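User: Last request for today: this protein with iron/sulfur cluster, please.
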Amino acid sequence: MSKDTSCVNCGICCKKGGPALHTKDAFLFEENIIQIQDVVTIRAGELVRDDMKNRLVPLPSELVKLAPAANARPDDWTCRFLTNNNRCFLHGKHPAECRAFYCKEPEALMQLSNEPRLERDKICEIIKAPAWWIELIKTHEEAVNYEELAEWAIKIDEDQEAQQKFIEKVEFDRSYRELVVEKKAAPVEALPFLFGRPLLQTMVMFKLTARPSANGINIVKIPS
Ligand code: SF4
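Assistant: Here's the final one, the structure of the complex with iron/sulfur cluster:
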């Protein structure tokens, strides 16, 4: 954040969200500067804003990024390492994207887009995570697939089957997370890294929300 002497430390870039991590950021885990609860996975297929196209597009492959504060509102993506006086708590050890980014010269960040990202399997290896974490990720990834969900989301109002399938995935996502914690397969603070954000939270990207119903929940479109 303060790499460039012209940076006035306004904190705006850090309030838009923490950086995606690249392989050159592996030292952050290797040196125990950040822990697993400090990151969140944005999964393949999640809709993200493409600033060049000025619209939401499905993410082609996963990215792991620095997370917001644990108690942040769902729409507040401020990096958890931004201090109250707009300083970076990691300064001197901050991730590659933060070092490259200067808001008045955003092109520098584009150069990093070709650099390999630090993905979940590599992070599991670095932190010597339990061997079963990779299997847990794989099972969840196969069961809760955003490409499939996007197809059902479009027709959720008029297609009862799509509605039912979407609800089953919401229930699976919720109960799978609960089970993992209950069986002590992973701590609750590792869930955003292992499985990304809960589907109950991310479905807003499809302009959907869950409403209680007599049989559990209904998924409905958010009125525009
Ligand atoms: S790591 Fe530091 S520079 Fe990077 S987004 Fe967070 S607070 Fe800002």
